[in-house]
């Protein structure tokens, strides 16, 4: 049984090696994507140039937003960690301070209770 498993693994490895060698033999397709191409195909028309520009602009914009959001998140996690003496936020102690935000919270919560929405948090 053990020799059958090792034979099966060897056959599977040989099959994968043959398939990967076939994949390496593929060249560029005429009119199609280039080998190891990671970007859009080169633009030929004016519309394609505008689409490529829009693609790069959106990619850069999304990257900037991603870096900003994760930067603020990791900064907040680093600065407010428990080892520096920060206590966890207990919302039960802060809901009765009488501010307008609390009134809004009570109003939204009671509206949801009246309209049949279930509250899933305990705060």
Overview of the structural elements:
There is one protein chain. This protein is mainly alpha-helical and 123 residues long. The protein has four helices and no strands. The chain has helices at 2-24, 46-79, 91-94, 100-114.
Radius of gyration: 29 Å
- Class per helix and strand makeup: mainly alpha
Count of β-strands: 0
Shape: flat
Distance between the termini: 60 Å
**Beta-strand share of residues:** under 5%
| Proportion of helical residues | 55-70%
Biggest beta sheet attributes: none
Give me some keywords for this one.
about 120 residues, mainly alpha, 4 helices, about 60% helix, about 0% strand
Short structural description:
The chain has 123 residues and is mainly alpha-helical. Helix content is 62%, strand content 0%.
List the helices and strands and how they pair.
Elements (H helix, E strand, L loop, with lengths): L1 H23 L21 H34 L11 H4 L5 H15 L9
